[in-house]
Specification:
Helix content is 51%, strand content 8%. The protein is α+β, with helices and mostly antiparallel strands. The chain has a single domain, classed as Cytochrome p450. α8 packs across α10 and α13 packs antiparallel against α14. About 3% of the residues have low confidence. Bound molecules: protoporphyrin IX containing FE (HEM). GO terms for molecular function: heme binding; iron ion binding; steroid 17-alpha-monooxygenase activity; steroid 21-monooxygenase activity; steroid binding.
Amino acid sequence: QSKAVGSGLLFSLRQFFPRFLSPSLPGPLSLPFLGNMLELTRDHLPNHLTSLAQRYGSIYRLNCGNTTIVVLSSAETIREALVKKWSDFAGRPHSYTGDIVSGGGCSISLGDYSEEWRTHRRLAHSALQRCCAQSLHSVIERQALSLRQVLLGYNETPVDLSEDFTVAASNVITTLVFGKEYEKTSAELQRLHGCLNEIVSLWGSPWISALDTFPLLRVARRDDIIRSHLQEYKVQCHTEGTGGTITASLLQSLDQPLGVTKKVALTETHVHMATVDLLIGGTETTAAWLCWTVAFLLHRPEVQSRVYTELCTVLDTRYPQYSDRLRLPCLSALISEVLRLRPVAPLAVPHRATRDSSIAGYFIPKDTIVIPNLYGAHHDPAVWTDPNTFKPERFLDGGMASTRALLPFGGGARLCLGESIAKMELFLFAAYLLRDFQFLPSGKDSLPDLTGIASVVLKAKPFQVIVRPRP
Ligand code: HEM
């Protein structure tokens, strides 16, 4: 009885004094001055953070200067923080440079959690839904068909497809956003990608200091490029009445009176930054996933044959529609397995605790930086048998139970804004490619390396492939 009283007392004390009485977070030894900074400079950071999780558990801390970083490496802890306690962990790290990069906090991806941010995200989300309902399917189909033409043109010579995938993914977004698509060789596209790639590196930086050394000149260059696109687009809207794009919808919402959906007045800077967010979020991610899919299929050609047979049996000679996905379980399993093994945003985007809270019984003070290690959660041996092996079969025949542990798009208030676009893109691009082509290694003993290069986006190392048209 005295034991029960003791634990009851401890429980109530923890409720009132969580900071002092909750257990301290495990983590590697913190060095004088450096703390655990060196841990964050390792090659393939997602892999390294996952190996630390094997030693310290699915929640541990790293000390970097005055900042505590908490790394979550299981679906359970990530769900607790991002979904169950979403408003406690919906913030983003602050920094002087981050503020400038995000247009004075007007970016959706880097902006901190506030009423203004919520209004901005809500309006961007509904503009996106509206535009996607009208045209997303046909926009992706058009890009899939033009990608097909490009691949046919290679005449089975070995090629690196990463740039073609980037152009296809980027054209989906630029069509949705500006009603415009580009040729692979166009100078305008090169300029746009050049500046976006540099800025994408900011998304995953847990270090305030890294943000503060970011060259601001690049931000000015990005803003000039986007501004000129927006200006051109507005003139076009006036003369040709181009509507139906996300930008048109966002510009219209600026004129709407304040109300339930729009609680704060938004400005053109918000439209500008939403455009940047969509272009950054929507280009490298989808392209990287396509490269990973081809890389894994080269390692397991029988999976490729199985998906091809399924496509031919279910669809006969027609091209697939997104509504066919439930009738194509092998293709859906392939998509899930690539997202599991190589989540293209492996550490999501760092979060910040907006108030004192807790995760898995540990006290987490306000302003702690939280890294959702999606890569770690997707390799958790407690959930996935043989976690390092590419096995789409795990999602077939009743193996669907673990889809709850699949979190490639994050969750909660910061769930990937482009999730619905991405899901349709992955499905249609993969279905079109695998229906029309067989992917073969470029030579004997030349299978792609599957470790990858990890920055904010987890990309496959460059590799060549032979693309053979199906009869
Ligand atoms: C954020 C994954 C495609 C736009 C994110 C996050 C992840 C993610 C993990 C971070 C969530 C967090 O902070 O916890 C992916 C994957 C994709 C993909 C796996 C494709 C395979 C796209 C596309 C777009 C997009 C196509 C836009 C058209 C965004 C934006 C954010 C975001 C704007 C920031 C959301 C916010 O901070 O509120 N994405 N994404 N993503 N993504 Fe995606």
